[in-house]
Here is the input.
Amino acid sequence: QVQLVESGGGLVQPGESLRLSCAASGIILSFYTMRWYRQAPGKQRELVATITSNGSTDFTDSVKGRFTISRDNAKNTVYLQMNSLKPEDTAAYYCNAHFDAWDYWGQGTQVTVSS
Here is the structure.
C-alpha cells in the first residue's frame, strides 16, 4: 500500500519559516517526480514546487527565492523549506508523487501564516 504522509505544517507569523516533509512508503521516491501543491480556501489547487528524479527543481513565481524543495532518497522523503512566509502562503499543502502512469497524493498539512 502506497502512502505519502505530510508533516511540518503549523501556525507561524509572517517572516518565519517552516519545513514540510513528505515521507513515502510503498514506493521508491527516487524514481518519481515530486511536487508540492497548495490549496487555499475558495481557491484552486496550485502547483508550488517540483523536483524531478534527477534533482531538477522548479517553483511558482510567488515563492521563488523563498521556498526550496529537496529530496533525501535514503529516507524516502521530500522536503519543502519555506522561508519568509507571507499570509498569502496560508493553505493546505499536499505532496504528489508521479511516475509514468502512477500518481499518488498525501492527505495534506495545513500552513497558516498570521500575526
The mean pLDDT is 97. The longest strand covers residues 91-99. The radius of gyration is 13 Å.
